[in-house]
Amino acid sequence: MPALSVLFIRTALLALVAGSLGGALMLSAKAGMPARIPPWIHGWHIELMLLGWFGNLTLGVAYWMFPKHATGKERGSPLPPSVAYVLLNLGIVLSAIGAMTGRVLELLAVVAFAFNAVPRVKAFGVGREGSTVNGRP
Amino acid sequence: MPRLVRWLIRGALICLVAALVLGAVRALSPGNAWLAGAWPVYLHLLVLGWLSQLVTGVAYWMFPRVERGAAPTDWRGWAVFALLNAGLLLRVITEPTMIRGPWLPLAALLQFLAMTIFAWSIWPRVRGR
Prior knowledge:
The structure holds two protein chains of two kinds.
Chain A: H1 3-30, H2 41-65, H3 79-96, H4 101-117
Helix pairs in contact in A: 1-2, 2-3, 3-4
Chain B: H1 3-28, H2 33-36, H3 39-62, H4 75-94, H5 103-122
Helix pairs in contact in B: 1-3, 1-4, 3-4, 4-5
């Protein structure tokens, strides 16, 4: 597993625990235990679960598992997904506290990630010497 | 596919079907108060019961083992399965009706523990070569 995927997936696991804690507090508060929770917990829970957990996890696994390039760096340049990691998680933190600039950073993160991922969305083995796709060279 | 993984994926599929049935019934009976209160249950059956449980199963199956030939998980994997599904079931029963008592906090605790134990157990397997 490449180091960048380790970073994405471990961040996803931390977001899962933090987001679940927010959800657990919200559910318990429905029964009055605790009697009151801060209003921002709702946004925090949704942001951490949807983008923190699923977002980081899918990007990390995609960078790890998508077909590699036959020539040059096998996973392409690590710069776009590294930028995506920083923008996504900064965006999540900002969105969770209600700053709308967070949404823009999340969008830019996905665009940055696409620079690396789109060329890797191809059949396994394409570009390798003697490779075939569906029996065709 | 290891036994625990099969159970996690079956659990995920059951949650998916349960969520879709609940969604359809809600759409067909818009005036029903119990069903109106079941909106969070519907969402959590999809996001936690279906998606997250599927992820846990596939992660235990596919993530690199700590040692070659090691088991996909230990007791913690079974604890994740039991706690997550018990928490969801308790939530399905108690959240729409707002049954008083410790049931909702207990459901919250079970789900939180399941996700925390999953993160703890899979963490060492998220590593470089």
